[in-house]
Amino acid sequence: MAVFTDIASLVPTLGERLGEGASLTEATALMVEMTDAEVVAILREAVEVTRPADQIRVVAAGIIADRSSRASGHSGLAQSRGHGSPASFVQQLTGSTKGEASRDVRVGQALLEGERESEADAGAEEAPPDDGGAGAGAGGGGADAGAGSHSESEAAAGRERQPLWHEPLGAALRSGALTAAQYDAIRRGLGEPPVPAGLPIDLPAEESAAIARAIHDAWFQAAEQLVAEASERTVEELGAAARTIRDLLDPEGAEARFLARYEKRSLRIWRDADGVRHASIAFEDEGGAFFTAAFEAAMRPRRGGPRFVDSEEKARAAALVDDPRTNDQLAYDLFMDLVRAGVLADAESVFGARQAGVRLVQVVAEDGTRAPVAHTEDGLLALPVGVVEQRACESGYVPVMVDSCGNPLDVGREQRLFTTRQRIALAIRDGGCRWRGCDRPASYCEAHHIDEWHADSGRTDVDRGILLCRFHHMNLHHGRWRITRDGKGDFVLHHRDGEQFVLHRRAALSYAWAGIDPPPKRFRPAA
Asked: pLDDT, tens digit, for every residue of 353-386?
């Protein structure tokens, strides 16, 4: 137990009150008697203590993976311990899940790869120019090869090393600003910068290099900005934001990735040993969004949907809440109704006032320039512009005027509830519940008036409203919280204990409206 005491001593709020040789049981009993503030402080301090150990863990996992390559065969580190993969070996050693072990391996390998690339680039800078002598006497073609090597060495020695685009992520992980999970979400979301293709053969080398450098710099800037936001975002939101940024910076690649996912769509049905039929569906992006919208519209009352609805919708919600069927059974029955192509399903009785559908949002500048990708109102899934054009042709569109930061212009009304168009505007601006760490989509949210509304005062204006899910809306009113906003500035959440938090919009929206300038087009038409 001395080891536990040593570690506990690194957590000041706990260590100062623990005696020598205390056990986890004694620490637990002590913590149970502590105040809320002390328990929160202990958790924060414990996280700071464990972060260096996490860094060591992922590096060790990366080294194990390097020493367990396929080329190593059965003599590899993991293989020699009876494991078919390094992730399996790491999972056994750490007691983690398969997904966590795989992530540690990915992050560890990425860190090692980054270190090697940095060292290689630094070595190229420091290498003295080749005098060409050895190359000149190397036989057929040796003189030309020597001259080329000489030229490249001079160029490498004469320029400052350009930082790799993912170096901000590695630096943040090593400093403790990012966890392994955050690092993995950002790096996987951003992917790799595209290689310029389709360039004319006669394009000057300087111009080609400038295009490649601009693409690299855009990814570097994206990595820096996501690192800066990591403390305010969940891992899931960082990953979604990184994917959105990638699609904005690389619209051609976004289209290709969309089509690749579309090709993977599938429906598989099989029967088990007891004769029960099962199904497995792999959705493409748009179909998955539509399918989810249909189920969410029908199931929302069972999953914490908005309370402020008309009397008919309230009655239907109450009936659904009281329904003895489980959520899974309700979902199945709804699926069967949808499969029967509406013959047995009455849309109004199934979905109520909020019909199922996918609402797409695309940014259009004053000069008519359209953003290269759009996003769904619920879920903020990025979709290629072709999908938007197709849906606009089929279903029409609703224009919403916004400022350069995505704030809708004043469409206020002297009434208690926000109108449908105002809710659309709030969804475009907020993307869902804006409470820290909440992932509830816009359709699950209620519009909160930050200025208390009265019949004789207060306006129901978009500028003075904010989307909150049912839980956080109630929590706000019953937990002595309040939200303020200075003009069109940030919404600020104030706690009764004096803490203040900025309520950011979803990260994906921050970059949909502004934040990172796209690099030059990847493709340049040949002359």
From this structure: 555 567 788 887 777 788 888 878 777 778 887 7
Instruction: Tokens for 439, please give them.
Output: 């992932």
Helix then strand count (H, E) for the chain reads 22, 10
Which class for 175: exposed (0-12), middle (13-18), buried (19 or more C-beta within 10 A)?
A: exposed
500-503 vs 491-494, strand pairing mode? antiparallel
Cα 158 from chain centroid? 39
Q: Pick from 131, 206, 124: which is nearest to 158 by CA? A: 124
Reported as a single tens digit per residue, the pLDDT across 447-461 is: 888 876 544 444 567
CA atoms within 13 A on the CB side of 504: 18
Both tokens assigned to 168? 């901000």
Task: Name the DSSP class of 140.
Answer: T
Cα gap 17→30, rounded to integer Å: 8
The distance from CA 339 to its chain's CA centroid, rounded to whole angstroms, is 32
How much is the pLDDT for 349?
A: 58
Q: Would you place residue 107 in the very low, low, confident or very high pLDDT band (cuts 50, 70, 90)?
A: very high
Instruction: Return the C-alpha torsion angle 366, 368, 371, 374, nearest 10.
Output: 100
> Rounded to an integer, what distance in angstroms lies between the CA atom of residue 68 and that of residue 41?
41
Q: What is the three-class DSSP state of 384?
A: strand
Residue 193 near residue 241 (C-beta atoms within 8 A): no
Q: How far apart are CA 515 and CA 526, in angstroms?
A: 31
Alpha helices, DSSP H, located in 33-129: 36-66, 77-80, 86-94, 98-126
Crossing angle (nearest 10°) for helices 251-263 and 285-299: 70
pLDDT in tens, 480-510: 788 888 888 889 998 877 888 889 888 777 7
User: Could you tell me which residues come within 8 angstroms of residue 302 by beta carbon, excluding any fewer than 6 positions away?
Assistant: 320, 321, 327, 330
Mean pLDDT highest for which of 110-114, 252-256, 278-282, 289-293?
278-282
pTM assigned to the model:
0.65
Of 393, 395, 388, nearest to 374 by C-alpha is: 388
Residues in the chain: 527
